[in-house]
């Protein structure tokens, strides 16, 4: 029984972490139809911002929940203005440029901070389930994922920015004729996506080894989730995170975490063969 | 009695709530020349896409010489002998005119014979002078001719031409009409066109599509005098 | 006729290069020979991506998957067989099978370029994690321990075919690698000039038109992808032969990025471009490694961004266009520069 609870918790936390690490990528993909290959580095920057702020004496909650997303969000806006905006309409080139950016950020961070692991300790303790020990941080991450999805839903559904975003997702040309400036929409999108990724990076800081190359450990799962989910930001993300998080955790429990990832990938490739536009392209077409 | 060359029965495709092609029953005899007309959005190009496998029908069937090809892939239908010149020129831009035709001819033939066939068609279509030019650099009218040449090089038995005269000069239009008559000596064609002068030059039987459905199908003279056709097509055409 | 002339040029160039390769040990010291050997192995890898991306239009971000798979297959087979010849063949075969499986799901699924790029990149990331986790005695194929993040040291290098007792000297290994590069280059040139080559270029140009002419784009793309996998796997064997060592970093993101950068700066749609790009970048990375001021990733990323923004066609096609427009200016035809610059 205890083991069932622990595995259940694992599944929930697996799904939640997929939601968190993929949300920013999904927003950018849903709106701009590109995969930001510097996504892992945005996560890493969020983690570094948190660690540095905590080391400078800032409260860890404030560092994770405010400083990390704001800092990375600003980085996103700057990147969009200085790089992405020159490549509109060139999807492949945009992806290549973000890949270049990813290398620049890894290299730059290494030059400044060196290639050593830094970190902060987890702000929450643990709890006991029978003979098993678990961290309170796990349910906290699940709550954060839930909160993030609710926030995305609310913004998309009830605000003017969300309305514009939905219009652009449906049809970028149409949105332009409605008098919306696509350049500003893309800048805001990239900024918002980056901020969400920064938040995820901040939340990861206490549970991950923070190094310049840490992004690479997360992007495989984030890519699979977003590609499997398709272009509808919310339902694609939730359905893909749910499906893949479940498969991944069960497979990891039965084998090893690495094989869990392999099985996750195989599941995703089969899914793509059946649904080439992702889950949302088939089942949630035209939804949020 | 043998099956007709092409027959569609109840052919329908819906996009969301829009029915772009609506229960079309269409029959084409061997070596027939048919013109397909109708106002913008009548479903002509969509009908062609259904015939060539670029779209899958929601309902209904397409039979080619009695064989059901509905839902087959484009390359499978092309191998059954259906060739199409699409509305927006579909050519290999970075390749030369000669290479465009050669690729088409190569599908059925050895490389050497493909080269011969290409030369033949280049001569017939008077494209020899621009054979070495990249298609991407050509004017719209010339690209149309290249695409027609490409279709011919594939030696199809049924040729679909979607607006073959668009963007051509008067002299080119007349040449195109002659070419179509020439092709029709050995092969069947369906031609979609807006230009009424052009239709009068080539047409015997005309099918009019309106809002995805067949409005009337008759001899060209009668169709052009029909009041309904004037309403939906010529009336709008004059207003536009 | 034009093709034939191009082919003659390639043959003459290759003959000169072959003479250079075979005589290099006479005037270059052993350290430099070793350096050149790894450059040439990497250039074979560059050709594999240059072919499938530049001619097949397949945007593969994870060409290291096939390279690494070839390298590991060679290492495992060479340790078990104690003979490099079957190991080299397996190093080609296994990546081809893997490319066939992966390619089938992606290409027959009809996914977009963006998806294909991301999925292939993800494959390399996952292979990296997978091989990284194979430390310990449990992970062992025959006599070969995979060794996890420590890699596999002491892999037998190439021997004379049919004579496992005769191990090639470093100079001989260099000649084999250099000649292999030329053979792969000429083989691809011939392939591109063949009907198959014409057809895959046509599919790259306009998939719809190719299908409407009766060609099934999927099978052509899949075969192209598999050929790329074969060449990359072969490059992996050449690479292991150079260092007698393989580790999971062969799958790492940094190398995936480098291959892309070689092809971008060299130029898509040529074969010589990716080779030039590869040699330039290899040299540059070696130079950066020798100093402390700049991180190699930083420089590579900056180069990639600059090329994507300013020289998206790459060096070889840009030079070719410049020469062409010179000729056009001399001739009577007005130069059509505006169109070229725009695209």
Automatic annotation (TrEMBL), chain A:
Protein name (Swiss-Prot/TrEMBL): Branched-chain amino acid ABC transporter permease
Major place of residence: membrane
Bilayer disposition of the protein: Multi-pass membrane protein
Compartments in which it is found: Cell membrane
One protein family per Pfam: BPD_transp_2
Organism classification: Bacteria, Pseudomonadati, Pseudomonadota, Alphaproteobacteria, Rhodobacterales
Matches recorded under InterPro entries: ABC_transp_permease (IPR001851), BCAA_transport_permease (IPR052157), RhesusRHD (IPR002229)
Family to which this protein belongs: Belongs to the binding-protein-dependent transport system permease family. LivHM subfamily.
Keyword terms of this UniProt record: Amino-acid transport, Cell membrane, Membrane, Transmembrane, Transmembrane helix, Transport
Ranges annotated as spanning the membrane: 6-27, 34-54, 60-84, 96-117, 137-156, 185-205, 217-238, 250-275
Highest taxon above the source species: Bacteria
TrEMBL record, chain B:
Domain ABC transporter: 6-236
InterPro entries noted in UniProt: ABC_AA/LPS_Transport (IPR051120), ABC_transporter-like_ATP-bd (IPR003439), P-loop_NTPase (IPR027417)
Keywords: ATP-binding, Nucleotide-binding, Transport
Family annotation (Gene3D superfamilies): P-loop containing nucleotide triphosphate hydrolases (3.40.50.300)
One of the record's GO molecular function terms: ATP binding
Protein name, per record: ATP-binding cassette domain-containing protein
Organism encoding this protein: Roseobacter sinensis
Automatic annotation (TrEMBL), chain C:
Leader peptide range in chain numbering: none
UniProtKB keywords: Cell membrane, Membrane, Transmembrane, Transmembrane helix
Membrane topology listed for this record: Multi-pass membrane protein
Transmembrane residue ranges: 7-27, 33-53, 65-82, 88-107, 114-131, 173-201, 222-239, 296-316
Record-linked Pfam families: BPD_transp_2
Main location: membrane
Cellular localization per UniProt: Cell membrane
Descriptive protein name: Urea ABC transporter
Species: Roseobacter sinensis
Classification of source organism: Bacteria, Pseudomonadati, Pseudomonadota, Alphaproteobacteria, Rhodobacterales
């Amino acid at each position: 029984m205890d083991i069932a609870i622990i595995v259940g918790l694992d599944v929930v936390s697996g799904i939640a972490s997929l939601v968190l690490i993929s949300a920013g990528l999904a927003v950018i993909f849903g709106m701009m139809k590109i995969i930001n290959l510097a996504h892992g580095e945005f996560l890493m920057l969020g983690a570094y911002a948190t660690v540095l702020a905590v080391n400078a004496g800032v409260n860890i909650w404030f560092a994770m929940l405010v400083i990390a997303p704001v800092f990375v969000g600003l980085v996103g806006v700057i990147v969009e203005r200085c790089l992405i905006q020159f490549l509109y309409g060139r999807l492949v080139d945009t992806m290549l440029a973000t890949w270049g950016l990813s290398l620049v950020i890894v290299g730059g961070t290494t030059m400044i901070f060196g290639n050593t692991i830094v970190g902060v300790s987890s702000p929450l303790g643990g709890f006991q389930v029978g003979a098993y020990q678990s961290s309170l941080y796990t349910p906290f991450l699940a709550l954060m994922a839930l909160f993030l999805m609710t926030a995305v839903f609310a913004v998309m559904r009830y605000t003017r920015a969300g309305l514009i975003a939905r219009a652009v997702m449906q049809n970028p040309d149409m949105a332009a004729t409605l008098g919306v400036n696509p350049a500003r929409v893309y800048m805001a999108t990239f900024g918002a996506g980056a901020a969400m990724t920064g938040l995820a990076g901040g939340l990861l800081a206490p549970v991950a080894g923070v190094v310049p190359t840490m992004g690479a450990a997360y992007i495989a799962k984030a890519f699979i989730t977003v590609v499997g989910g398709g272009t509808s930001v919310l339902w694609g993300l939730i359905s893909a995170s749910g499906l893949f998080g479940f498969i991944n955790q069960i497979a990891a429990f039965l084998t090893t975490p690495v094989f869990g990832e392999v099985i996750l990938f195989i599941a995703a490739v089969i899914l793509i063969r059946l649904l080439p536009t992702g889950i949302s392209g088939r089942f949630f077409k035209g939804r949020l | 009695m043998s099956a007709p060359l092409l027959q569609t029965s109840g052919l329908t495709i819906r996009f969301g709530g829009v029915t772009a092609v609506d229960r079309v029953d269409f029959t084409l005899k061997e070596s027939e020349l048919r013109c397909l007309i109708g106002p913008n959005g009548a479903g002509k190009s969509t009908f062609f896409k259904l015939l060539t496998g670029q779209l899958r029908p929601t309902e209904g069937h397409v039979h080619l010489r009695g064989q059901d090809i509905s839902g087959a892939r484009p390359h499978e239908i092309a191998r059954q002998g259906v060739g199409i010149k699409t509305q927006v020129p579909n050519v290999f831009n970075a390749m030369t005119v000669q290479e465009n035709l050669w690729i088409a001819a190569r599908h059925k033939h050895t490389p050497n014979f493909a080269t011969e066939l290409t030369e033949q068609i280049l001569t017939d279509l008077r494209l020899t002078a621009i054979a070495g030019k990249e298609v991407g650099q050509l004017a719209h009218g010339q690209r149309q001719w290249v695409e027609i040449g490409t279709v011919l090089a594939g030696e199809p038995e049924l040729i679909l031409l979607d607006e073959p005269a668009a963007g051509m000069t008067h002299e080119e239009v007349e040449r195109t009409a002659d070419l179509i008559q020439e092709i029709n000596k050995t092969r069947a064609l369906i031609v979609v066109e807006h230009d009424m002068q052009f239709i009068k030059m080539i047409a015997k039987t005309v099918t009019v599509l309106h809002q995805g459905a067949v409005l009337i199908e008759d001899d060209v003279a009668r169709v052009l005098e029909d009041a309904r056709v004037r309403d939906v097509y010529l009336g709008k055409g004059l207003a536009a | 006729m034009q093709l034939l002339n191009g082919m003659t040029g390639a043959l003459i160039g290759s003959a000169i290069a072959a003479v250079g390769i075979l005589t290099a040990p006479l005037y270059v010291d052993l350290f430099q020979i070793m350096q050149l050997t790894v450059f040439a192995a990497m250039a074979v890898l560059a050709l594999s991506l240059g072919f499938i991306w530049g001619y097949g239009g397949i945007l593969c971000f994870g060409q290291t998957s096939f390279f690494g798979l070839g390298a590991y297959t060679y290492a495992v087979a060479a340790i078990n067989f104690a003979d490099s010849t079957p190991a080299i063949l397996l190093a080609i075969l296994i990546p081809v099978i893997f490319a066939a499986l992966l390619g089938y799901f992606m290409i027959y699924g009809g996914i977009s370029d963006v998806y294909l790029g991301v999925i292939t990149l993800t494959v390399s990331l996952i292979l990296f994690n997978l091989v990284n986790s194979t430390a310990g005695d449990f992970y062992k194929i025959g006599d070969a321990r995979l060794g996890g993040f420590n890699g596999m040291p002491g892999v037998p290098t190439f021997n004379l075919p049919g004579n496992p007792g005769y191990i090639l000297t470093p100079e001989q290994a260099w000649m084999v690698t250099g000649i292999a590069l030329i053979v792969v280059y000429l083989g691809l040139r011939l392939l591109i000039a063949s009907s198959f080559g014409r057809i895959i270029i046509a599919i790259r140009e306009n998939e719809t038109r190719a299908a409407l002419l009766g060609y099934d784009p999927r099978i052509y793309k899949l075969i192209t992808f598999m050929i790329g996998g074969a060449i990359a796997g072969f490059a992996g064997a050449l690479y292991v032969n150079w260092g007698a060592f393989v580790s999971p970093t062969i799958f790492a993101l940094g190398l995936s990025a480098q291959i892309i950068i070689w092809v971008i700066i060299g130029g898509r749609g040529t074969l010589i471009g990716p080779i030039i790009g590869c040699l330039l970048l290899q040299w540059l990375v070696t130079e950066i490694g020798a100093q402390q001021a700049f991180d190699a990733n930083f420089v590579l990323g900056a180069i990639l961004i600059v090329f994507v923004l300013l020289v998206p066609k790459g060096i070889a096609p840009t030079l070719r266009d410049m020469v062409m427009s010179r000729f056009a200016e001399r001739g009577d035809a007005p130069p059509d520069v505006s169109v070229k610059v725009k695209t």
